[in-house]
Specification:
The structure is a single chain. A seven-stranded parallel sheet has the order 11-12-10-13-14-9-15, sandwiched between helices. Strands 16-21-20-17-19-18 form a six-stranded parallel sheet, with helices on both faces. Strands 2-3-4-6-5 form a five-stranded mixed barrel. It is built from 29 helices and 21 strands. It is of the alpha/beta class and 849 residues long. The chain is globular.
């Protein structure tokens, strides 16, 4: 079996062979990060190398091809094997030469083959010379014919064969397709259009309305780059015979070389009004194909790159769909297709690429999106079944004793907290391992519920663990647990553990203390351990670990949670999140977890007053901060960047530069501290601790304070560049204040006047309800903010949407019926379905053993 370092080198070899396409690991290099972080420390890999490889894995997907190549070269140098880069490159070159010799007789033949790519069949609805209408053409389907293949092709080829067996796709075009993630015929069939141009329904300029999102076909009359303030603007005047409109792009001066006056383009974007005239800012655009302008057909538009042209790709996909779509195996059982009223798979592939009508396009999209959701639901149900088939230790506490504990607390639990606590009590007394997601808004009181649950376990002789993402958050939980135990012991005397049986384990814990914690946790003397990633280390062992709490669960991967669970025998698990999760996402992604919601805030909490401020109003916000500090309170000021230049695409203020200016020019009489993610853990914890102890008045920070900072004395948070953040993140920032009894304030400062109208910013002023904001954030930005590092392939959806609750529920209901009837999917009817399901969550590691 290969070591973790050898696996990295294997991935690098595959990356070089694939042309740095980030597909040596399915889902991208970052998918290997949790495995690397788990395996490398056990093999004696140095901390320095662990961090360098981790940084490489996490950043690789963000790089372009050139930077990926350079990052690989740098990493091989760090690993002490710089010679491997040239060796891998030579191996790749030899393989390319061999393949070219095997498949083509020479450069002349290759050029002829690629240049003579077959066009749409004559008379078909996508023949560029045909002028028949969409309806008249749709009634005649092209005859299915065997695909013409290369001479050296054999009859064993399938839809998983390389795309280069398709006539017209030679080595160069195969490389261009590879850049788009297309390697096989199946990949090409599932390479869906990013949009469709319905040439019968384009709007003309004289009918445009402000606020609508439209597509127009126009000729460019002029284009120029102009400078306005710090912005460089590319402006074009375009028209379609019914009128003219100005379109513009900010800070993209290179576009002037891509837009040619006198040429026709398709522009897609939102219509705004400037000085009483319609304008379009930052639209997508593509050259029009003249042959399409006089037809009524719906034309697919695909994602392309500089070496892959739209016309060529459309022809290739047309021929591929025509000859191969009916060879895709129909893996859905017939009962499911009928019950869910789904289009056949081969028909869906045809219509998603070349739709006969808008109605058939929607039916195709629904079928293919259903497939994605259905497979995920089956996967989720399989995980849940595996969990519920196991047994776990049972823990019970009487209602009378539980009430006695609760009455000992210095505050009253809300009805929501009591309800969730009772749900947990039912789980840990069921004999099955609990697997529960506890979600509650910022400040809703999740920690006290987790603490009481841990006390039930540890009071009866079991051990409990709470893992938090940061050292400061772990320390806050540690102190909270100690306070609660002391209160219960003091007021009721009915508790078998004391504060001395709780331990705090973080990366900054002294080695001597770590050793003592290792020994006492292994012997069972320590009842509860609260810590960070340090809990995952091998020396941490337990005598009878029966309860695990993972706080801010989206900060941890599946592998990390599995590592922690492996330290016990089917321990009960509760994962907590302060990010409210929309119902559609909970049903889909977290369907294997039982869901508890703390949807009630403790009494006495005042809603945070939130304001959107334009850049000119910054001085007024600063005066408010000074006033609050003089009244004995503290404030946060958040910036989106650590240093200038961190964002190559946009200008923006950074925390480092701003802290110097604020300290010297704006708040000379106040104590200002700086915090950002590039600081070492110990340094960050020290600054946060000092801020909590009121040694600083104002904390200038990046998003590092999004979670894990409980400063009741902080009453103001100022968020610069607020339009750069999503709702989930803005809501988390706002949750850093309003944790005491004083009125608190949140100021959202937009980068410019245009950004003030940002929907996310306006939504923040209208509600403090995290669940409403979560639904809106899901609709606007997708599921990324909610999933974090939950690695189950859910981010690979091509057509399914987490906002389509109706389709999600349909897929879940059908999956439940199939799973209840055949949980092993062992019947002949489910054979292909089982094969398709097994492809989920697979990491391709080449020849790794």
């Amino acid at each position: 079996m290969l070591s973790s370092t050898e696996k990295i080198k294997k991935f690098i070899s595959l990356e070089i062979e694939r042309g740095y396409d980030n597909r040596s690991v399915v889902g991208g290099m970052e998918k290997f990060l949790p495995i690397w972080r788990r395996e490398a420390p056990t093999e004696g890999v140095s901390e320095e190398i662990i961090e360098k490889v981790s940084k490489f894995l996490s950043e690789y997907s963000d790089f372009d091809k050139e930077r990926r190549e350079q990052s690989i070269r740098n990493l091989l140098n760090d690993l002490g094997s710089p010679e491997l880069f040239d060796r891998y490159k030579q191996r790749y070159s030899r393989a390319e030469t061999t393949n070219r010799q095997n498949h083509y007789s020479g450069g002349e033949n290759r050029s002829k083959e690629e240049s003579s790519a077959p066009d749409y069949p004559e008379g078909s609805k996508y023949d560029h010379e045909s002028s028949n209408s969409l309806r008249s053409e749709s009634s005649v389907k092209p005859e299915r014919k065997p695909v013409r293949i290369h001479e050296n092709h054999n009859e064993s080829s399938t839809i998983d064969s390389p795309v280069k067996i398709i006539p017209g796709i030679g080595p160069q075009n195969a490389k261009a397709l590879a850049r788009q993630g297309v390697y096989t015929i199946r990949d090409l069939l599932y390479y869906f259009p990013r949009r469709y141009d319905d040439y019968s329904k384009f709007k003309t300029i004289n009918k445009l309305l402000p606020g609508e999102k439209v597509t127009i076909v126009c000729v460019v009359y002029s284009v120029e780059n102009v400078v306005r303030g710090r912005y460089q603007i590319t402006e074009a005047v375009v028209g379609d015979g019914t009128g003219m409109i100005r379109v513009s792009w900010f800070n993209q001066p290179w576009l002037i070389h891509q837009i040619q006056p006198g040429s026709s383009y398709v522009f897609s974007g939102k219509i705004d009004v400037f000085l009483g005239r319609p304008v379009m800012n930052g639209p997508e655009f593509e050259p029009t194909e003249q042959e399409n302008l006089n037809t009524n057909r719906i034309v697919p538009v695909y994602p392309v790159n500089s070496n892959l042209k739209q016309n060529y790709l459309r022809r290739m996909i047309f021929n591929t769909v025509r000859h191969w779509a009916n060879l895709i195996p129909e893996f859905l059982p017939e009962t499911v297709s009928e019950s869910a009223d789904l289009m056949p798979l081969s028909k869906a592939i045809e219509e998603i690429h070349f739709p006969d009508s808008a109605e058939l396009l929607e039916a195709a999209r629904r079928r293919l999106a259903f497939d994605e959701l259905f497979l995920v639901q089956l996967d989720v149900l399989r995980h849940k079944r595996n969990r519920t088939s196991a047994t776990a230790n049972r823990y019970r506490i009487s209602d009378e004793r539980m009430d006695c504990w609760i009455k000992s607390l210095p505050y009253e639990l809300t009805a929501a907290q009591r309800r969730v606590l009772n749900e947990i009590r039912g789980d840990i007394d069921s004999g099955k391992p609990m697997n529960r997601l506890i979600q509650g808004d910022v400040g809703s009181g999740k920690t006290i519920v987790a603490c009481l649950a841990a006390l039930i376990i540890s009071d009866a002789g079991g051990q409990s663990v709470l893992m938090a993402p940061t050292g400061i958050l772990a320390e806050q939980h540690f102190r909270s647990f100690q306070d609660i135990i002391e209160k219960i012991r003091e007021n009721s005397g009915d508790l078998n553990i004391d504060p001395n049986r709780i331990a705090l384990l973080t990366g900054s814990t002294p080695e001597s203390e770590k050793k003592e914690i290792y020994e006492k946790s292994a012997s069972g003397e320590i009842a509860i351990v609260i810590g960070t990633h340090a809990l995952l280390e091998d020396p941490v062992q337990f005598k009878n670990l029966d309860f695990i709490v993972v706080d801010e669960q989206h900060r941890f991967g599946v592998e990390q949670r599995a590592t922690l669970r492996s330290k016990g025998r089917n321990p009960h698990l509760a994962v907590m999140t302060a990010t409210p999760i929309p119902r559609s996402l909970a049903l889909t992604v977290y369907g294997d977890l039982d869901l508890s919601v703390i949807d009630e805030m403790p009494q006495g909490r005042l809603p945070v007053k939130t304001f959107v401020v334009n850049p000119l109003g910054r001085e007024r916000v600063y005066r408010h901060v000074i006033k609050e500090v003089k009244n004995g309170h503290q404030a946060f000021i958040i910036y989106p960047l650590v240093e200038s230049g961190d964002d190559e695409q946009k200008e923006g203020k950074s925390a480092v530069e701003a802290s110097e200016f604020l300290d010297k020019e704006v708040f000379p009489e106040q104590r200002v501290a700086l915090l950002h993610g590039r600081m070492k853990g110990e340094e960050k914890d020290a600054i946060l601790e000092a801020f909590k102890n009121k040694e600083y008045d104002i904390l200038v920070s990046t998003s590092v304070i999004e979670v894990g900072v409980d400063i009741p004395n902080a009453t103001t948070i100022v968020i610069e560049g607020a339009n750069r953040f999503g709702l989930a993140q803005l809501h988390q920032f706002r949750g850093r204040v309003g944790r005491g009894n004083e009125q608190s304030y949140c100021f959202l400062i937009a980068e410019n006047d245009d950004a003030i109208e940002n929907e996310r910013l306006l939504a923040m002023t209208q509600t403090n309800d995290g669940f409403k904001l979560a639904e809106l954030d899901l609709n606007q930005r997708g599921p990324g903010d909610f999933l974090g590092s939950r690695q189950s392939g859910f981010m690979d959806f091509k057509l399914a949407s987490f906002t389509d609750l109706k389709l999600i529920e349909s897929a879940r209901n059908e999956a439940l019926k199939v799973f209840e009837a055949d949980p092993e999917l062992s019947s002949e009817e489910n054979k292909l379905l089982k094969e398709q399901l097994e492809k989920l969550n697979t990491i391709h590691i080449g020849e790794l053993s």
